Amino acid sequence: MRTNETNQKITNGQEEFIMKPYVDWCFKELMRNPKTRQGFIAVLLKVPPEEIGETILLKNELSRRSEEEKQGILDVHVLLRNGVQIDMEMQVAYVDYWDERQMFYLCKMFADQLKKGEGYEKLQKCIQVGILNFTYFHDDDISYHVINFRDNKTMKLYSDKMEIQILELPKIPEGYQDPDGIVAWMKFFRGPDKKEMEELAKENPYLEEAYEDLLEMSQDEEKRREYEARERAIRDYEHFKHAAERAAERALKEGHEKGMRQGIQEGIQQGIQQTLIDLYRKQVLTVEQAAVECGMTVEEFQKLL
User: Fold this and answer.
1) HEC string of 106-119?
2) What is the pTM of this model?
3) Which of 58, 80, 83, 153 has the most CB atoms less than 10 A away?
4) Domain that holds residue 274
C-alpha cells in the first residue's frame, strides 16, 4: 500500500487538496493504471476481475474513410483479450445531442473492427460507457442503465454485440452498500469526500489502487497544473455556452424573423469555437484538448488558428 508513503510527502498546506475524479482529465489519468482498469471493467461486465486479465489502451481517435466523414474521438478506448472493445467517457456537464454522440461513437467503434474483405464473423462486442456528472434520465431514480437491442413486443435480447451503459452520479443511492459493485465505483468517481474515498479504498483493492494514484496525482505539481487548466477550461466553456444561450433567448423574444433561430444556433457554435481557440492561445487548453471539445482532429483545429 502506497498511501502512507504518499502522505509523508504531503505538506500541511497541500494535504486538503484532492482532485475530483469526475473531471475528465483526472478520470483518463486514473484509467492509465492497468489494475484500476481491470477492476472497473470487471464491475461493468459483472465478472470477477481475474476473468478480465490484461487490458490494452487503444488510440482514442477512430478512423475516417473520407475527408467528409465525421471524426470520432474517444476518451478511454480499451481492448480486452477476448476482442471486446469498451469506450469509457466521463461527461462533466450536459451537452446537446449527447445521446446521438454516444450512438455515433458506438457504431463507429463497431464498424471499425472490420478491414476490407473481412467477414462479419470477425465482429466482437462493443460497449459505450457514459459516466455522467448530471442527470440524463429525469423520469426515474435509477443510477445505472444498461441498454441493448431488444424486441419491442417480447423484450427478448436481439443482440448483445452493441451495448450502452450509462452511470448517473447524481442518482447514487446513498444507503446502498456493495464494496465490490458498481455503486462503490460511482461514489469514488463522484468524490471529493476524502473520508468516503478512503473507506471505499479499504474495502476494494482496485479502488485502493485508484485512490493511491489519485493522492499522488494531487500532489504532483505538473499534473495539478494540467488538472486545474482543464477545470478552468470546463468552467469557461460552460460560462460562454450559458451566456450565448441567454443571448439567443433574448433575441428570439425581441421578435426576430423565423429564420433567426438557426442563425443564432450557428452563431453560438462559432462563438464556442472562438472561445476554445482563445483558451488554446492562452495555454489553458492543449491543442489536443481544444480539438476534442470542437469535435475535430488536431489538423482540422489548427486550420482555424
Assistant:
1) HHHHHHCCCCCCCC
2) 0.77
3) 80
4) 224-304
